[in-house]
Amino acid sequence: MVGLRENQRMVRHVVLLRWMSAISDAERTRIEHDLAALPGEISQILRYDFGPDLILEPGNYDFAIVADFGSEDDYAVYRDHPSHQRVLRETLRPRIESRVAIQFEIGGD
Amino acid sequence: MVGLRENQRMVRHVVLLRWMSAISDAERTRIEHDLAALPGEISQILRYDFGPDLILEPGNYDFAIVADFGSEDDYAVYRDHPSHQRVLRETLRPRIESRVAIQFEIGGD
């Protein structure tokens, strides 16, 4: 990837969400549309994966967002970026019953 | 992943753990040693990332495991594999206070 050095330490940000109630197809479309726009607006995002639980196991959370960054500072830029904050405020938070998160270190590709 | 093609569908398995109490350096070494052995024993694992929370944010979970597979069937092989079950039984479960998980679809690299 452009700007990524070989064997670079990376930071993976993981968020798992449980919705307050089952979301409609229209809500899911909006959520995925709004998230899909973020890598184009926040250049610090090196890889961005998200999606609903495949319902293979009981008790799972409902939705995952996994974002990879080149550094802790780049993660913080994403966290605080107005575009991300707007998606959190307008699209995600109104639907969230519970949220768990972690940032951990991974090797670069 | 942004720009994925439909024929590159993969399954990402995410587990976040909270320990019952702070783990020692020796316990952490054992956990990471035991997990690091699994990709060599379970060929269905395409990518395996794990590690402790970087403690950038309050309220995070303590430890993440993220495993990528080529299919739901390959994920199930991992889930049920004796080597994985042994690590769960002997290394992880005795230390877990709470666990959240999801499997979701991602694009391949």
What's the story with the biggest beta sheet of chain A?
Answer: 4 strands, antiparallel
Average pLDDT confidence of chain A is: 93
- Secondary structure tally: strands of chain A: 4
- How many helices of chain A? 3
The second-level CATH architecture of chain A is 2-Layer Sandwich
The unreliable regions of chain A are: none
Oligomeric grouping of the chains: homodimer
Give the overall form of chain A. Answer: globular
Largest interface chains and counts: A-B, 36 and 33 residues
Trace the largest sheet of chain A across and list its strands.
Answer: 2-3-1-4
Describe this structure in words.
The structure is a homodimer of 109-residue chains. Chain A is of the alpha+beta class and 109 residues long. The first copy, chain A, has a single domain, classed as Alpha-Beta Plaits (2-Layer Sandwich). The first copy, chain A, contains three helices and four strands. Chain A has helices at residues 25-41, 72-80, 82-92, and strands at 9-19, 47-52, 63-69, 96-107. The longest helix of chain A has 17 residues, at 25-41. The radius of gyration of chain A is 14 Å and the shape is globular. The model of chain A has no long low-confidence stretch (mean pLDDT 93). The A-B interface holds A 11-12, 14, 16, 36, 39-40, 47-54, 56-57, 59-64, 66, 72, 75-76, 100-107, 109 and B 1-2, 11-12, 14, 16, 49-54, 56-57, 59-64, 66, 72, 75-76, 100-107, 109.
